[in-house]
Amino acid sequence: MLFGLHPHAENKPQPIDFWEALWGNLMRTLDSGTMGGDAGPGFRAAMLVVTIGGVIIVASLIGIISSAFDSKVEDLRKGRSRVLEQDHTLILGWSSKIFAIVAEICVANESRRKPAIVILADRDKVEMEDDLRMQVPSPGKTRIIVRSGDPMNLADLEVGNPHGARSIVILAPEDNPDPDSVVIKTALAITNNPHRKRAEHHIVGEIEDPSNLEAAHLVGRGEAHWVLPHETISRITVQSCRQSGLSVVYTELLDFGGDEIYFTVQPDLVGRTYLDAQFAFADSTVIGIGSAGGVRLNPSADTVIGTGDQLIVIAEDDSTIKLGTRGAVDESAISHLAAAPSRPERTLVLGFNSGLRTILRELDEYVAPGSTVTIVADVETPPLPECANAEVTYRRGDTTSRAVLESLDVAAFDHVIVLAYTNLGAQRADAKTLITLLHLREMADRKGIDLNVVSEMLDDGNRELAEVTQADDFIVSDKLSSLMLSQISENRQLTEVFDILFSSTGSEVYLRPSDEYVRPGATVDFYTVVEAARRRGETAIGYRIAADSHNGERDYGVTVNPRKDDRIAFAPGDRVIVLAED
User: Fold this and answer.
1) Least confident segment among 34-43, 231-240, 479-488
2) Which of 226, 169, 223 is closest to 198 using CA atoms?
3) Quick one: which of 279, 358, 365, 389 has its CA closest to 325?
4) Per-residue pLDDT averaged across 328-353, rounded?
């Protein structure tokens, strides 16, 4: 219009108004084919210029939009977008324990609404997602969200939204020579974050070296609960070597898939005694009382439950914790057989890792004076602690060598502990352990003896292979550590419970001969077993059937938290599982 150019029709110019000209130019800008019907040389030239300009503009816009889209997709692929979830479990770091932790928390989340797990680690997001899909194929209703970043970096930490997390799990890196420094610095980034929430965080992390625990407590400021995996596994190994089946009991208590430990408030039991509480539940087992003063496991039977006190119970689920009717006790079936006196013990340790010193210290707390410990490992003589009750000797040798094992007179030992060489890596270490166990089994079969063997495994996937060796217990270190971290992430009060259970002081789990509680041949319900244990100052929590001790389909004979009205007849060799001081 400005230059007097108009479209032609029948070789005559056809004037148009401003808005029609603007619309026509816009159409030619967006669609170059529009100018195909134009007529008139001047008008065609003008529209050609408009169309070419439009092609350039549109192409530029498409390029800008495409570049921005590709950049956003790349950011998403790298896991750099901020998490919007609230009330989620945040896992910081990556190690082989993460798969068991994620699987357990997924089971615990079944009763939650829209649960989520967020993982923030300094690895490629796609690789992490692929590993998780392979190792945790069935997460149930839980959404697993993966982000890539350094948990020690404040900016990267914000990606995981720690301020909205229900709990935070900090994993120690496996490829770092000083993993504790990484864990402590990550905790510091959370507790001293300038954008942190006012409420307390619920943090649980693992510390490899006990000497770093004090620094970890200073950084955690009461918000963090720390697990010492090596110390704990060493203690469980010692306890299990003296009591066949104990590792199965601990796995049952730590695994969300079976019975686990809960805290519950029962106003109807206020003013009643601990013994009354034990008899008040038919399908839950009371093991202690939690109060403002702390946790008490296996307290005195006449301990009175106060207002605000919580009962610590073993139950299948918190929804199953219900008061019932007290059952009767069969007084005539209760045994008065005295416990056998302690005697010196001989223990053989095959293999070596950093937990050996802790094992020796813990073992010295349990055994009677005059006991002996013989260590055989294919390493230079390590520094050994001073022991008051046990005489320790060391011998260098290849623990996979049949000749070495034959020379030890294995049948003369009361307990055999096979340790994993953790410095070799999980698969090589477990391979050496398997070879050692196969030799021990063949030697026991040939001599017609029953060896009490406890073995440490690093990879739970190798446990099924190791079961053919018929060892009494398998301590899968990574799995047990993962289960503890998962349990504490769901309930911070369990920290104190585990500290007591896995220590040589206070009440611990014991498997004791059933004939010390119930007369042989008598058929009783578990109310009677509870009363028999009470008279010895103990809390009964289950039993083990010796005939099923090597049957994995029957949980190796272990039953934790049986219904108290179910009746059972114990056979020779069966055990009652109790909480006791000693």
Assistant:
1) 34-43
2) 223
3) 279
4) 88
Measured CA distances, 131 to 69, 136, 459, 487 (Å): 27, 8, 16, 23
Shared-domain flag, residues 142 and 46: no
Same domain for 110 and 62: no
The predicted pLDDT at position 42 comes to: 59
What was the pLDDT predicted at 2?
45
Asked if residue 458 belongs to a domain, the reply is: no
Under 8 Å between Cβ of 353 and 379:
no
Beta strand segments in 86-190, E: 88-92, 116-121, 143-148, 165-170
111 and 72, same structural domain?
Answer: no
More confident residue, 416 or 9: 416
Reported for 534-538, long-range contacts at CB under 8 A and 24+ positions apart, including other chains, are 534/275, 534/278, 534/301, 535/334, 536/578, 536/580, 537/298, 537/300, 537/301, 537/580, 537/581, 538/298, 538/510, 538/578, 538/579, 538/580
Amino acid at 229: P
**Domain span holding position 49:** 8-78
Return the structure tokens found at 351.
């293999």
Same-domain pairing of 64 and 182: no
Q: How many domains does the chain have?
A: 2
Report yes or no on 457 lying in a domain.
no
Which pTM does this prediction carry?
Answer: 0.80
Mean pLDDT over 507-529 rounds to 91
Considering the domain architecture, whether residues 114 and 185 belong to the same structural domain is answered as yes
Last residue of a domain, one of 227, 244, 278: 227
Of the pLDDT bands very low, low, confident and very high (cuts 50, 70, 90), residue 74 is low
Closest CA to 441 of 414, 419, 475, 472: 472
- The whole-number pLDDT of residue 416 equals 92
User: In this predicted structure, what is the pLDDT of residue 175?
Assistant: 81
Nearest to 485 by CA among 313, 254, 288: 254
Q: Do 175 and 157 belong to one domain? A: yes
145 and 171 both lie in a single domain: yes
- ∠540-541-544 over CA atoms, to 5°? 100
The DSSP bridge pattern shows strands 558-560 and 539-544 to be: antiparallel
Instruction: Pick the more confident residue, 375 or 553.
Output: 375
